[in-house]
Amino acid sequence: MKRVKNPPIRLKDFASIESMREEINEVVAFLQNPSAFQKLGARAPRGFLIVGDIGTGKTSLALAIAAEARVPVVEVKPQQLEAGLWVGQGASNVRELFQTARVLAPV
């Protein structure tokens, strides 16, 4: 598990996100200033789901959104969550991941 402090990619680097621009801007605005949205009665989302085929830029888009919003990213490879030699190690790895994410969360 590694924390990506300053993702090197920005939204301007994407050519094909115009159809999603409004939604992406809302996500960025919320991440930049969650208290303003909460004052209006908005609840913090528990997360965002980006779906697509392999190699379509999902990870790059997530990093670009985080960079624009100036929020940290925790990058995890699937093998880092696999069970180790001991029973329950995989579940422990997942708990550790979520604990790290909660500590770094903007809200």
Instruction: Give the full name of the CATH homologous superfamily of the domain at 2-75.
Output: P-loop containing nucleotide triphosphate hydrolases
The major beta sheet can be summarized as: 2 strands, antiparallel
Helix coverage percent: 40-55%
Structural class: mainly alpha
How far apart the termini lie comes to: 21 Å
List the strand order in the largest sheet: 1-2
Number of strands: 2
CATH-defined architecture of the domain at 2-75: 3-Layer(aba) Sandwich
Rg result: 16 Å
Described by the principal axes of the CA atoms, the overall outline is globular
**CATH class designation of the domain at 2-75:** Alpha Beta
Provide the residue-averaged pLDDT: 81
Spans of at least 5 consecutive residues with low confidence: none
Number of helices: 4
**Could you spell the SSE succession in H and E letters?**
EHHHEH
Taken as a percent bin, the fraction of beta residues is: 5-15%
- At CATH level 3, the topology of the domain at 2-75 is Rossmann fold
Protein name: Chloroplast protein-transporting ATPase
GO cellular component, one term: chloroplast thylakoid membrane
Organism: Opuntia streptacantha
InterPro entries: ATPase_AAA_core, P-loop_NTPase
Structure characterization notes:
The longest helix has 16 residues, at 89-104. The protein is mainly alpha-helical and 107 residues long. The mean pLDDT is 81. A two-stranded antiparallel ribbon has the order 1-2. It has four helices and two strands; from the N terminus they run E-H-H-H-E-H. The protein has a domain at 2-75: P-loop containing nucleotide triphosphate hydrolases (Rossmann fold), CATH 3.40.50.300. One of its GO terms (biological process) is proteolysis. This is Chloroplast protein-transporting ATPase. Residues 49-105 form the ATPase AAA-type core domain.
